[in-house]
Amino acid sequence: MKKRQANVKPLQRLSKAKFWLGSLGVVLLAVVTVGWLPNWQVSQTQISGKDKAALENEYRKTAIQALGGLFFLVTAGLTLKNIRLTEDKNVTDRFAKAVEMLADEKLEVRLGGVYSLERIARDSRKDHPVVMEVLTAFIRKKTQSGEYGKPNKPRQEVQSALTVIGRRETTFDSHPLVLSGAYLKGAELRKARLEGADLEWVNLENATLSYARLEGTRFRYAHLQGAILQGAYLQGADLQEARLEGANLSQTILESALLCSANLEGASLSQTILEGTFLCSANLEGAVDFTEKQLAQAKLCCTFLPEGVDLRLRNRNCKEMSINPEESGNILLVPSVEGKTFYVLRKLANGQVIFNRDNWFNL
């Protein structure tokens, strides 16, 4: 305690010194500007007598007006700074209270905490990423705990948090949402904005994601059996080894998405856009409502196709992807940072992954 007090005293003395130095500077500026400067300006002219005194007074008035304007600007700047400090303190207090409410035993209080955080995210752009991190952490903790169980749809506070996240108007590429491993069976995420989110290992069985914004989202190993993804935007998404049995993918945009080793058995692919979609080792057996014209736009290699489909399509793109269809194991693709180069992996039945650095291809 003594050490802390000893540190405070020098800081107080420093603040007082700054105040007195600043005050002295203001006085000197006023003396020079109002007292000396007008006299010096007049002395540089050829005027004398009454005209000299009148001109000096005019210069002095101008100097006083300039000082008044400067004082106004400084005062306005300090006032604005104080307002911002007050607003920041207010947001900080609201944030702390909202986070505290999330841990309350009463459901209505927890819901209040969720919606309070949403209001903070809307009011303060700089706090938006932090609010989203808190909400996603809240969802993960709630759904991964042993007490949560395996409900057919999320509990009310979890669904509310998902709704808040999904309807946000601002996204930050540098702060992607992280919901990996969350148990969200039966969740309502219609038109949700989850671009670039980390949803690996998430359970979204029978969830509604129709018309959701899911561009670049990572769904690796996700459980999406029976999910409704009608009209969803999944350009560039990673759904490798995802479970999509019986999912509704009608009108879904899967352009350039990775679905290698994904299971789409019994999925509906009516009017699904598969342009540039990687379906290496994917299981489409039993998939319905699609045409060979759709498959012709996709990248196929070792793909398991339904009965009645031209089997020559199965390995159509193996050569251009530097993949040997005779080798065993499911195919997985690892994109480079630039996204133009793909490295080919093989995953054996025992879980072993075989990686050859020389096995890669460019788009």
TrEMBL record:
<keyword id="KW-1133">Transmembrane helix</keyword>
<dbReference type="InterPro" id="IPR001646">
    <property type="entry name" value="5peptide_repeat"/>
</dbReference>
<protein>
    <submittedName>
        <fullName>Pentapeptide repeat-containing protein</fullName>
    </submittedName>
</protein>
<feature type="transmembrane region" description="Helical">
    <location>
        <begin position="62"/>
        <end position="80"/>
    </location>
</feature>
<keyword id="KW-0812">Transmembrane</keyword>
<feature type="transmembrane region" description="Helical">
    <location>
        <begin position="20"/>
        <end position="42"/>
    </location>
</feature>
<dbReference type="Pfam" id="PF00805">
    <property type="entry name" value="Pentapeptide"/>
</dbReference>
<keyword id="KW-0472">Membrane</keyword>
<dbReference type="InterPro" id="IPR051082">
    <property type="entry name" value="Pentapeptide-BTB/POZ_domain"/>
</dbReference>
